[in-house]
Design brief:
oxidoreductase, binds flavin-adenine dinucleotide, FAD/NAD-bd_sf, oxidoreductase activity, alpha/beta, FAD-dependent oxidoreductase
């Protein structure tokens, strides 16, 4: 039966959910507080589809690394110490989740969701959509032998999980991508990974939603809920109430604030990251890559080159921290010696807030807080990669059907 579904949030998750609900015959309204010409986390990201990322952020070693990097203003991971009970509680939960057993339980699910999403991206491309999809894989570039040994251990786990990964020396790496000069000890090549231009993919989704009869309400902030019995009747906005049969929350890093009044606790911190896009790079790789020791992502997008990185847990202040941007640019010539940080002079850094749950896993499922609310958020560093499959699953949940994957680990009620 066709229902009216309100999707809160017009990022990659919300738009993917909207398209999937329309495909199932529902009437869909996407509500976003920003104008259509917006620039959120789903736009300036590194554009990678990453079956290689089957290890959640909350993993052994990350806590120690976080403490080590806290004191370095150019480091790629930073938690700004501040008195904030939400942050303290999030940090404790992160530490509790950063265990081997959590990673072992999470990896097969992340693999399955990423691979399923990759298939959906291939489908979009097969339908003739042009969003710059390149399916040649990703190189985890290692400057040092120690780094390569560590990545080789991840590659062994990947192969055991059925995600193909090949360990390459410097010459082997150059053979996989001969279009760029590299100075590395070696790499791990994940041939199933892909990259694209995320802004183009968002435009594709918006066009498809409109063509399928979906409606957008831009500049419309959701400020509250109207609940009757155990069900939501409407969302409140400055323009009045909007009623629907089903609601899907895809509010990115703001999602936790949005559901607080419903008594739903989905702990979330904004993980700020930056990117810079050079329209005229001195060289252009064919594959996307991660500079592993520096945690910097490098992606060719058409003739441009985007570099991005840092995970700054410092609240939701839209302030660009020049030292962290400098840290990203300084790393580039270490791996790609033809580049200089000054190649990016005059290019305005973009920033985005990754929606980070403490256990590094998305929130995807129905909730006890309201019987007609589905939550789809908290994808941290993998929201673009997991977008289409998350959207498809959200639509399955809207229809109260059984999902193919066991989503118990992703329950929005897991911290209730
Ligand atoms: C530097 C960087 C590089 C990245 N690289 C990659 C990558 O290569 N691959 C990958 O998979 N992921 C990557 N990510 C992560 C990815 O960008 C995010 O996971 C993803 O964009 C999150 O999408 P979202 O739809 O959940 O959130 P968002 O894109 O933030 O969308 C949420 C929307 O909700 C709206 N909203 C919030 N509150 C309200 C309200 N009260 N009322 C109405 N609307 C509201 C906002 O306006 C916003 O439009 C990267 C992130 C960064 C920062």
């Amino acid at each position: 039966m066709s229902k009216h579904v309100i999707i809160i949030g017009g990022g990659v998750i919300g738009l993917s959910a909207a398209e999937a609900c329309l495909k199932r015959g529902h009437r869909v309204t996407v509500v976003d507080r920003q104008p259509q010409q917006r620039s959120g986390c789903s736009f300036g990201n590194a554009g990678m589809v990453v079956p290689s990322h089957f290890i959640p952020l909350a993993a052994p070693g990350m806590v120690a690394l976080g403490f080590k990097w806290m004191w370095n203003p150019e480091s790629p991971f930073y938690i700004k110490p501040r008195f904030d009970l939400d942050l303290v509680s999030w940090g404790i939960k992160f530490m509790q989740a950063a265990t081997r057993s959590h990673v072992e339980a999470a990896s097969p699910l992340l693999r399955d969701l990423n691979l399923a999403s990759r298939e959906l991206y291939l489908q979009y491309a097969a339908e003739g959509e042009d969003f710059g999809l390149v399916t040649k894989g990703l190189l985890m570039l290692c400057k040092t032998q120690h780094g390569l040994d560590e990545e080789a251990a991840v590659a062994a786990k990947a192969n055991a999980l059925g995600v193909p990964a090949e360990v390459l020396d410097a010459a082997g790496t150059a053979k996989v991508d001969p279009t760029i000069t590299m100075d590395v000890a070696g790499s791990v090549w994940f041939p199933k990974d892909c990259h694209m231009a995320p802004e183009k993919f968002i435009a594709v989704l918006e066009r498809r939603i409109l063509a399928a009869g979906g409606t957008f309400r831009w500049n419309t902030e959701v400020t509250g809920w109207k609940k009757e019995g155990g069900r939501l009747r409407a969302i409140q906005t400055p323009a009045g109430e909007l009623e629907a049969d089903e609601f899907v929350l895809c509010g990115g890093a703001w999602s936790d604030d949005l559901v607080r009044d419903l008594g739903l606790k989905i702990p979330m911190q904004a993980g700020k990251g930056y990117s810079l896009t050079n329209p005229n790079p001195v060289e252009l790789p064919t594959l996307c890559s991660v500079l592993t020791e520096a945690r910097v992502a490098v992606t060719p997008m058409g003739n441009s080159l985007r570099v991005g990185g840092t995970m700054e847990i410092s609240g939701k202040q839209e302030k660009i921290e020049p030292r962290r941007v400098a840290g990203i640019l300084k790393a580039l010539p270490d791996y790609f010696p033809k580049f200089k940080p000054s190649d990016f002079d005059g290019i305005k850094p973009w920033q985005g807030f990754r929606p980070c749950s403490p256990d590094g896993m998305p929130y995807l499922g129905r909730t006890r807080a309201a019987s007609n609310l589905t939550v789809a958020t908290g994808h941290s560093m993998m929201g673009l990669s997991l977008g289409p499959e998350t959207g498809r699953l959200a639509a399955v949940l809207v229809d109260r059907e059984k999902t193919e994957h066991d989503l118990a680990m992703l329950s929005p009620d897991r911290y209730a």
